[in-house]
Amino acid sequence: MKELLIGFNKAFESKARLGIMSVLMVNESLSFNTLKELLSLTDGNLATHLRALEEQGFLEVQKQFIGRKPNTTYTATEVGKKAFSDHLNALEEFIKAL
């Protein structure tokens, strides 16, 4: 049974991080506010999880101004997409084995 857990990625154990990567897999990029609304997270909670995923190289961050307002958008990197897909495949194999 332990060998089935080897493919799990600890970066995606959190419900918030699982949600972040899920929505970024099907959207090219999303703003901080859109992610916050979709996932029903507080600013601080979302920022913490985004930073952790960014530090692992799973997200790319773009900061810009729209008019006078700052706008931060997030995109899943190729590394992040592969890691997330591998995690989902491992989860699927684990479920099938049960």
TrEMBL record:
Coiled coil (UniProt feature): none
InterPro entries: ArsR-like_HTH (IPR011991), WH-like_DNA-bd_sf (IPR036388), WH_DNA-bd_dom (IPR027395), WH_DNA-bd_sf (IPR036390)
Domain Winged helix DNA-binding, chain residue ranges per copy: 17-95
SUPFAM superfamilies xrefs: Winged helix' DNA-binding domain (SSF46785)
Gene3D superfamilies from the UniProt entry: Winged helix-like DNA-binding domain superfamily/Winged helix DNA-binding domain (1.10.10.10)
Entries under Pfam families matching the protein: HTH_34
PANTHER family given in the database record: BSL7504 PROTEIN
Name of the protein described by the UniProt record: Transcriptional regulator
Species of provenance: Nibrella viscosa
